[in-house]
Amino acid sequence: MQEHRRYCSQLLVLLVLFIISLYVVPILGKNGNGLIEVDVGVILDADDQMVGKVSQTCISMALEDFYALNQNHNTTRIVLHKRDSKGDVVEAASAAIDLLKNVQVQAILGPQRSSQAEFVIDIGNKTQVPIISQATSPSLSPTDNPYFIRGAQNGSSQVESLTAVVQAFGWREVVLIYEDTDYGRGVVPFLTDSFQGISTQIKHRSVLSLSASDDHILEELYKLMTMQTRVFVVHMLPFLASRFFTKVKQAEMMNKGYVWIITDGLTSLLDYMDPTIINSMQGVIGVKPYVPKSSKLENFKVRWRKRFRQENPNVDIFEMNVFGLWAYDSATALAMAVGRSGIGVSKFKKPVAKENLTDLAAIGISEMGPRLLQSLQNIEFNGLSGKFHLLNGHLRPLSFEIVNVIGKGDREVGFWTQKYGISKNLSFSSSKNYSTNKDDLGAIIWPGESNVVPKGWELPTGEPKLRVGVPVKGGFMEFVSVERDSQTNAVIATGFCIDVFKEVMDHYLPYAVPYEFLPFETPDGESAGSYDDLVYQISLGNYDAVVGDVTIVSNRSRFVDFTLPYTESGVAMVVPFEDDDRKNAWIFMKPLNMDLWLTTGVFFVFTGFMVWAFEHRVNEEFRGPPSKQVGMIFWFSFSTLVFAHKEKLISNLSRFVIIVWVFVVLVLTSSYTASLTSMLTVQKLKPSVTNISDLILSKEYVGYQQGSFVKGLLKNKTFDTSKLKDYGTFEQYDEALSNGSKNGGVAAIIDELPYIRLFLSNPKYCAKYTMVGPFYKTAGFGFAFPKGSSLVPDISRAVLNVTEQNVMTRIEKGWLGEGATCAEQDGARVTSDSLTLDSFKGLFIVAVVASFSALILFLSIFLYENWDTFTSNDSSIREKLIAMAKTFDEEKDNSSYASKRKLPIGEGMAVPATATTDCPQSPATSDSQLAEWIFSPDEGLSTIETSTPIHETIEIVEINEER
């Protein structure tokens, strides 16, 4: 039994040792020192001195630096297995298969060419081995290739910086030149979309093969010279760019007026190019990824130069580039990911044995690849190239440096960042917004050693001209006129509209558009139709544009696209001045309108009635027969108009009403006098027609301009077509308006504002006619182009620039004059001179309130005095009302009031008649007052009684009683 147990124990120990030998010993690695060796492949072009050799040294130094700094914390170590791609796609693919099949690498660094990387990435996807490459072509996407890690900035990330440069200088057309490779073609769609976003057209694409001959390059350049665009964006690597720019210099296209912009793939490698090539690129602008300066970077460059000389003694170039820095940081990122993932010796899962398996199919799938990929996905650290952040398989872009090729290399002129746009430095204030202002760039020396910003276009040498149709008309030549040269028969177009178009096309459009004017005429030189017919010719393909006094209206916009208007809008009418009011026999009625006359008359009667109601019971002058009382109502109220009333008022209520009413009358008479005086002394020129509706109702004849859209407008306004007449000149306008509608002319001319203002600017016409309106809004004059024309946005912007500048004022003064300066136009008013009821509503409301307040108080007192009669139960309501009416009509006993007013003879104002002869009259007593004392109230204006002193005294006492 014990032997059996001993045998089992030995067997168990052997089994454990066997398991350890299978799993633990291989993990320890070949050297047996406890470190796990992870095999990583490197595929680079050993003959590429600019990228391949530089990157190879950087990768080796990256791993050495990483493990030197982390030797106490790492149990894994990357072992590099280098392969030469020899600049060939097939060689790169073969190298990848060899590394995966024979070495079983867990990751591959490289290749760096986009065409080679595409095949290697496909292999990595099939075997689930991460491929970390500096290939920048946007066509290689980590989204479509999950095992592709781009250890460089995406080529599309530079597009916004290139667009910002073009936008800053306002260039509206560019020519794109790129190499016919995956690298060259990959960025084109992104450039196209980005330029389209700022309304910049890619006018032409020039694609050059890597094997293109010098003659072919020159031929392509000469073709570009025949175009108008002078802004060229070049996207190619140094191999082709070196030959290309040599030919650009030879073709004299690196002179003043040209703009050359290069992308980051070339800008980043300028230091490796021959000085003769750099000399042919003077004035070129480029963008490249910005690498922040640091002491760590400078120390590395010193060590790298020494190492690079040792490894490449036959190479004369010892400059670091951004691709080498990315290779260094990529290797560092891979070493960090390997350490974090905790992977061991990886094996490939072999496929089930099948016959005729290819080498690629026989490799299998990496067991550790997915874990390593996950560790690489979002790794982040501060590397030599700046902040190295792999986000979703891409190196996150930060900022770009804008440089100018001057002298032996490039010079920094600014920066671009995604948040702030263009700036001179990378120090931003919190208030800074995104900017594409060219002033935020440093001084740039352009091709031809010019410091003047090129406009980006020149007159083309072979492009067909824009066919511009212009109207032919017999009048209104100030707007557009077409003549032919007697010798050459060339079309000569002049006028306000033509000058505006020339100014827009020749000076404000950001590129050149050659054009020629073609008149819209019949073989005998007459107009070929209306303006609608002219505009429709564009949709028929007979014209490329129409220029003239063409109004933007909705029915025309169905066939063409209009630019923004360059004139004011609106339709108005011209009418004669009506005759002078001073010749009117009834002019005295005009100061007040009919409503005010009627209201004033009603208030006169109303006020007279109110005074009678308050006075007829207590005042003898308001009593008598009914005819006398009615007459007194009218007489008293209307006499207040000229303050001629002599009747004395006894009731305080009537005095209150008269005080308010006299104030109203004072304001009315003053206003009436002022208005009538103005009518009689100042000549008022008023239009004969003030409303277009009056023309429709009166069925007067109306004129309009020949060929104008106004005819259709008048039809829509329900004008009788038989009452419409067309005219072609200002002279015809004058004759028709002078004759009038009843004498073969018209009552009004309806036209657009520019024509009317020009018509009235003539002193001969402005003294006779005036403008009424505008009563209809239009968009103004515009230039017409075919539907969807790319010229419309640019010309519209140019029109805005012209209209906002003094140049438009200069053109208007040159053709349309300064405008009307007639005094008659200044005196013309469409509104009536008559005073209206609205101006005096407040006064009448005050008078009504005062009168009714007095009436309410009067009725309250009357009812109080006759309350016994009103509340008596001995009679019916009808009898009560009759009794109250009789009481109201009876004269009130006013003896107590009169007795209070009597004064002793010696103390009052009564004096013996003899006093008038014996004593001198007091200076304070006027003749009128003295006469008033001795007038008899019943006799009116009576003679003075001197024979009977007693009668005189009695008369005086009676007057005192009345007061």
Quickly describe the structure.
The protein has 963 residues and is an alpha/beta fold.
Give the SSE layout.
Blueprint lengths: L1 H26 L8 E9 L7 H18 L6 E9 L4 H15 L3 E3 L4 H14 L3 E3 L14 E3 L8 H10 L4 E7 L2 H5 L1 H10 L3 E8 L5 H12 L5 E5 L2 H13 L8 E4 L1 H4 L7 H5 L5 E5 L5 H17 L10 H20 L6 E2 L9 H5 L1 E2 L2 H8 L3 E4 L2 E6 L2 E2 L3 E8 L2 E9 L3 E3 L42 E6 L9 E4 L6 E4 L1 H13 L6 E6 L10 H9 L5 E2 L7 H4 L2 E3 L8 E6 L17 H22 L10 H14 L12 H30 L10 H7 L3 E4 L4 H7 L7 E4 L2 H10 L8 E5 H8 L2 H4 L2 E8 L7 E3 L4 H14 L1 H11 L6 H5 L13 H25 L1 H4 L6 H13 L5 H7 L13 H4 L8 H7 L15 H14 L1
Parallel strand pairs: 1-2, 1-3, 3-4, 4-5, 6-7, 6-8, 8-9, 9-10, 19-22, 19-23, 26-27, 26-28
Antiparallel strand pairs: 10-16, 11-12, 13-14, 14-15, 16-17, 17-18, 20-21, 24-30, 25-28, 25-29
Family: Belongs to the glutamate-gated ion channel (TC 1.A.10.1) family.
Subcellular location: Membrane
GO molecular function: ligand-gated monoatomic ion channel activity
Structure explained in plain terms:
The chain is of the alpha/beta class and 963 residues long. The chain has 36 helices and 30 strands. An eight-stranded mixed β-sheet has the order 7-6-8-9-10-16-17-18, with helices on both faces. The protein has a five-stranded parallel β-sheet with strand order 2-1-3-4-5, with helices on both faces. A five-stranded mixed β-sheet has the order 27-26-28-25-29, with helices on both faces. Strand 26 (702-705), helix 23 and strand 27 form a beta-alpha-beta unit. Helix 19 packs across helix 20. The longest helix is centred in the last third of the chain and has 30 residues, at 652-681. The model is unreliable at 16-32, 826-832 and 896-963 (pLDDT under 50). Its main location: membrane. Belongs to the glutamate-gated ion channel (TC 1.A.10.1) family. It is found in: Membrane. May form heteromers. Glutamate-gated receptor that probably acts as non-selective cation channel.
